[in-house]
UniProtKB/TrEMBL annotation:
Residues 88-283 form the NodB homology domain. Residues 1-24 form the signal peptide. Keywords: Signal. InterPro entries: Glyco_hydro/deAcase_b/a-brl (IPR011330), NODB_dom (IPR002509), Polysacc_deacetylase_ArnD (IPR050248). This is Polysaccharide deacetylase. It comes from Nocardia panacis.
Length: 283
């Protein structure tokens, strides 16, 4: 069984494996971490702030104008969905999708991660960042958390407008570049360094958009465990999904819907995974 089998047979059978966030369908000072980071093969290293960054979204988009994609989905060459673990390592990631009803934060979940010294990569949408400058500063100031890019409008990254879960994708090379670039620049200005990783809204990409993302300097990230189905899963389902973890897994869950089952499920399962010998690492 592939890593995508970690979703859970029942959800696959029902066609209800969600990675997007939507209001109607569930779209929600600490000591430094001593946990080692796990390197992701092929991931570009963040350039020092004094090195030149890409020329901008227009220049990058122009190089790909008119290209037709050959692949579409959540898995393809260029998308990082797992990593080469050193022992029983796994990476925990959380999305904050932003927009109406999606600009909150699950404080109980974040406080638990801090108290337990569990590192996580946080994929933050530009709308969420704009609505939460103080929260962003607090998160970014804690070495447990790496801030990553979750785009501007939470759209699938496409050059043809292809949709996922009824969410229309970006429809040109320029729109795809802008979806990554504007938040890349926003995070860089706020934190003084560019984000290294990007996850598209719904975690769907085409291969042209993957190349555009790479040229901006970010690694497109998928997942191997869909923990909370777009913040729609119950806490028991979150626990079940996370319990299927294998070394090198990257889990996807959501941190912006405190009323969902995500926080309770994670708070229950992460200590058990640690007891089983898992170490939590950054990407």
């Amino acid at each position: 069984m592939s890593r995508r089998g970690l979703f859970g047979a029942a959800a696959l059978a029902a066609g209800a494996v969600l990675t997007g966030c939507s209001s109607a369908r569930g779209e929600s000072g600490s000591a430094p971490s001593t946990t080692p980071k796990a390197g992701v093969a092929g991931a570009p290293k963040a350039a020092p702030i004094d090195e030149p960054r890409p020329a901008g979204s227009a220049a990058i988009a122009a190089r790909h104008a008119g290209e037709q994609p050959a692949q579409w989905g959540m898995e393809m060459p260029g998308i990082t969905s797992s990593f080469a673990a050193k022992g029983k390592q796994m990476a925990i990631t959380f999305d904050a999708c932003g927009g109406p009803d999606n600009n909150d934060m699950d404080d109980s979940l974040v406080n638990f991660l801090v108290a337990q010294q569990i590192p996580a990569t946080l994929f933050l949408n530009k709308r969420w960042i704009d609505a939460n400058p103080a929260r962003l500063a607090q998160l970014a100031g804690n070495p447990l958390f790496e801030i990553a890019n979750h785009g501007v409008a939470h759209r699938p990254l496409s050059v043809t407008g292809r949709a996922a879960y009824e969410i229309a994708g970006t429809k040109s090379a320029q729109e795809a570049a802008d979806e990554v670039w504007a938040n890349h620049e926003r995070i860089t200005r706020l934190l003084g360094k560019p984000p290294r990783f990007f996850r598209a809204g719904t975690a769907h990409y085409d291969d042209v958009a993957v190349r555009i993302c790479n040229e901006i300097g970010e690694t497109p990230v998928g997942f191997s465990i869909n923990a909370d189905y777009g913040a729609t899963a119950s806490s028991s389902v979150v626990r079940q999904n996370m319990s299927a973890a294998e070394p090198g897994a990257i889990s996807l869950a959501h941190m912006h819907r405190p009323q969902s089952g995500t926080g309770a499920g994670m708070i229950a399962v992460l200590p058990k995974l640690r007891e089983q010998g898992f170490t939590f690492v950054h990407l």
